[in-house]
Write a structure and sequence with these properties.
Four copies of one chain form a homotetramer. Chain A has 283 residues and is of the alpha/beta class. In chain A, 33% of the residues lie in helices and 19% in strands. Chains in contact: A-B, A-C, A-D, B-C, B-D, C-D. The B-C interface holds B 1, 3, 70-74, 76-77, 257, 261 and C 1, 3, 70-74, 76-77, 257, 261.
Chain lengths: 283, 283, 283, 283
């Protein structure tokens, strides 16, 4: 793989921020030249100016940043095998939300980041080329991306979500009272929540009511994860509302990188409907 | 600016190697949308999928790597002001040559690197969009790029070159006897040199003889630089051969970042015939 | 110089965060061996297990992170010449404060960071070895460090401060009404401010009243900086209160890296009472 | 974990080079204060100025650099669980040798690197705190470190070595004729090899003859690895010479990160005789 960390100043955040990007370069070769990018040399595809990759926005968990999932798993190799590009923003425990205290991380991730990434890197535009996968806090982030912007993502994967934005209003209200203050510091209080931009159940109902195309949802959690019931509940509500959702529980696994290393592989290799090939400009 | 360090495995080198890339992102905005990329908002140009930048290959000196010129100068700001993208390979004291001991850095920098960079990043293809600027060992590297591949570079800048490939055959022979063994370890000995791929004078003569288009050459050196005479000599030979070359000597300056910080600015802001604007796909 | 970026999870922030550290390695040599670290070889001092460096906490400005001051100035070289170690945290526009929304950046920078840095890196402990220098938002951060923890810093430098914590209560109240919402999102409102931990005037008065040893304060600003009056005002109040403070205004310079590149050099080379030598364990 | 990449100029290499260092920071806390570093808070040990860690030099393979093993495995977590610090140099396919073409990587790794790392980072000095683990080309590198400098390493691990320095003189001679030119470009030819600094069998015989203390050797390889016989042969010679060596073959595994991820865990968690605790200054 090729990997990089890009540091630039985001306009929407008004912050210098980091993005990790990885490309499946071990499967690419310059030796094919420009004549026939679709040919293969020893199983490799051509580098070619103007080529693009399907893109998975890979969302880190709470307390982490854009580097951690790459460091704690074998994620680069999973992306390599599936010929997909990964992009990870760093969201500073914002729950991937437009926070009460000013930083608009949701708008950043859904509006600014794709334009920047498609402008500066070889990321294929278009809903059918765009996916989101998140773990822990990033799992809820992925749900929020898919439910609030169903026009942008072909499919989303929530691994062990449960903290932050959720489809379960009762669960949300409880989370405002947790000893752990992040939800109440970041998202609206009891009175402002229902129907707000953070109320994912409203977003899901709007998709149904509006007859909008929704992403495919995939949800996975370890059977021993302390947050298992909340994750299951998000699945249950999506399923009851009639959205296209799969759920898988991993027996014996918990809320840690033992589970995530396995399921990031599964998400990229099995769940997501990826093309698993570069996209050349003549297509 | 936006800056990144890309780590990937080069095919030609068969090494995991680093590339520093910087983009003039402080002059870009997502707020213009896609409708009119040529409009300006507060002096900024639009991010737009498919946009490209003119590209300067910025070549580090001996004992350095791809990060050092960025760390020791205000180079990011010079690139920003001139709306150009910078790309720096890391060449491990190879003199930017195909070394005797196996690593083909010249082929890497001129053949593989541009294809990779134009495939994965927003680097505009084409000779008229491609420049090379080097300092110290990288100055000779830039000369070599321009003389051996005049088809690839619109203009090249040599700042304080003098070590490695040169237009002065007598000087080259002397450098084989230096206490400092890098030239004799890397490049051909006395008997194999003349007419070899490393003999820049032959390359220059071929350009003239073949009536090929040559890049514009710009050479700068500090008057107090220990290597000043060798740099001047490269200028003199280029000029005598009738190539398009400018020479400037900075009074009182030496072989260090005092000189390079000033002259990297001059090279990007004044010498190179840059467009100083992004290139959008509809152009 | 040697430079690194350390990524680890801060306990107080409960975030994976980045720290830039640079060491004056160009002035060090392994060739001296262990026998006589005080000898010099070609002007270099010895690497020696157990050696320590005086440490300057270098505080970035608003919208920046730990990397920006190093990228936009020649800071590594200024540190090299003064044989000092630099440490920069990344504070996500928190004004170096314990924010209303939960992240305790002030405690992180003053309590956790020094312990971590002195445990994992060669940073000399003790007030006489510890300094803070900040630019823009980091200038006010440096003032806050010196006034709230006068026991920790020998001297602090504020370059172009003005946003966030200040000695001017009237100015603070005005800043709550700025269109720019960062101050009111981060720090206390009008009613809670006076006497709070964020009220630097109270802190300064306590130092005087308690007869505590204060750091030496150095304040610099460009004459054309839009924030010049607020910076001058912080100087004026410190001076009126009888603290040890110097002020310098740079004619014709503004709120940008033209000024900061010059004055970071001045701060490290002239203002701060540095030893300009490593500290070996036998001293 | 905490991880960093340090870029500095090596004296012996005369190159700006990268070192990856990781620390087991997830197991450390600042909340214990300085009074009792041996106490534990929720299973964590204290950060404390002057603390040190046992250090494993982790040697990357051919075509890789200091970052690759961390990116392709879960190595940070293995180091975390075993409370050990990892240090990885980047050796540019030099076979960890003093190369024919001038770069003295062996001297760099064994003489300069430990002094630099112990001077700038919290690496415990002394043979009993120092280990080497390598994979592929790095496996032979680890053998060479242990056999040529038995005074420096308590134990070394060779995972899937086989290329470069070896204990098998016949195999070495054959490798000079490989299509793959790295051995003959880097190491001595047939006539100069026997008894040279690169002839590991001589080094092993000297240890025995001199009655020197040797490190413990651990060798592992996948049963399906193409290089399996060469690895086994290195084991066989060490064993015949009477050195302390273990050998383990992993059924069904090959020369890839499937094997290395498992066996790096095994090496750190089981094979190496680590203390698995920080070392505080009062011990």
């Amino acid at each position: 793989m090729g990997i990089l960390r890009f540091s630039y100043r985001s306009e929407l955040l008004s912050l210098t921020t980091n993005i990790t990007v990885c490309y499946p370069t071990a499967s690419l070769t310059t030796s094919l030249g420009y004549q026939d990018p679709h040919a293969e040399v020893k199983g490799k595809k051509a580098y070619r100016p103007g080529m693009k990759f399907q893109t998975v926005y890979l969302l880190h968990g709470g307390g982490e940043d854009d580097t951690v999932p790459y460091r704690y798993t074998q994620l680069e190799q999973f992306a390599e095998r599936n010929m997909v590009m990964l992009v990870s923003p760093s969201v500073n425990d914002s729950l991937y939300a437009n926070t009460k205290y000013g930083f608009k991380y949701f708008d950043y991730v859904t509006q600014e980041l794709p334009v920047v990434v498609q402008s500066l890197f070889a990321s294929a535009p278009g809903r059918s080329n765009t996916f989101a996968v998140g773990l822990a806090m990033g799992g809820n982030g992925a749900l929020a991306l898919g439910l609030k912007r169903p026009d942008l993502y072909e499919a989303v994967v929530d691994l062990s979500g449960g903290i932050g934005m959720t489809l379960d209003r009762v669960g949300y209200m409880e989370s405002l009272d947790w000893e752990f203050p992040i939800v109440r510091n970041t998202l609206p209080g009891k009175d402002e929540y229902a129907g707000s931009e953070h109320d994912l159940r409203s977003c899901a109902e709007e998709i149904i009511a509006g007859g909008k195309q929704a992403p495919a949802f995939f949800i996975g959690v370890g059977s021993e994860d302390f947050i298992r019931d909340r994750v299951y509940n998000d699945y249950r509500v999506l399923d009851e509302l009639g959205l296209n959702v799969s759920y898988e529980e991993a027996p014996g696994l918990g809320h840690d990188y033992g589970f995530w290393n396995l399921y990031l592989d599964k998400a990229l290799s099995t769940w997501l409907p990826l093309k698993r090939t570069p996209i050349y400009g003549d297509e």
